[in-house]
Amino acid sequence: WRSLLAELVKVGGITAEEAKKSSYLNIVGMVGSIDNDFCGTDMTIGTDSALHRIMEIVDAITTTAQSHQRTFVLEVMGRHCGYLALITALACGADWVFIPESPPEDDWEDHLCRRLTE
């Protein structure tokens, strides 16, 4: 930073006094991730917007599923973080959710088929 200030003084971009006042640089970082996978934050920027959009889609799919008596599988973004999938499942009362933090057991297909026949 200091070398950049010195260069600005050298080329006449700022005065030496301005460079002295700006000798320290404070940086603030904001995490933007819909995955909500950053430690130390309650919710990252983008997560709430993504969840809101997912719930709009779930509402639209639910209407179709009920009127046609169908079951739908919904996949959401999240890479290696199941936050959006889990919160969506809780918010809409899903019967089943797969998240990377807790992989399904080997016989998950049998459990799912039994649940669907209930």
From TrEMBL:
Cofactor(s) needed for function: Mg(2+)
Catalytic activity as recorded in UniProt: beta-D-fructose 6-phosphate + ATP = beta-D-fructose 1,6-bisphosphate + ADP + H(+)
Gene3D superfamilies membership: Phosphofructokinase domain
Pfam families from the UniProt entry: PFK
Keyword set includes tRNA processing: no
InterPro entries linked: ATP_PFK (IPR022953), Phosphofructokinase_dom (IPR000023), PKF_sf (IPR035966)
Keywords: Cytoplasm, Glycolysis, Kinase, Magnesium, Metal-binding, Transferase
Biological processes annotated in GO: canonical glycolysis; fructose 1,6-bisphosphate metabolic process; fructose 6-phosphate metabolic process
Known pathway: Carbohydrate degradation; glycolysis; D-glyceraldehyde 3-phosphate and glycerone phosphate from D-glucose: step 3/4
Sequence ranges assigned to domain Phosphofructokinase in this UniProt record: 17-115
Cellular component terms (Gene Ontology): 6-phosphofructokinase complex; membrane
Superkingdom to which the source organism belongs: Eukaryota
Any GO molecular function: monosaccharide binding
Protein name per UniProt: 6-phosphofructokinase, muscle type
Species this protein is from: Nipponia nippon (Crested ibis)
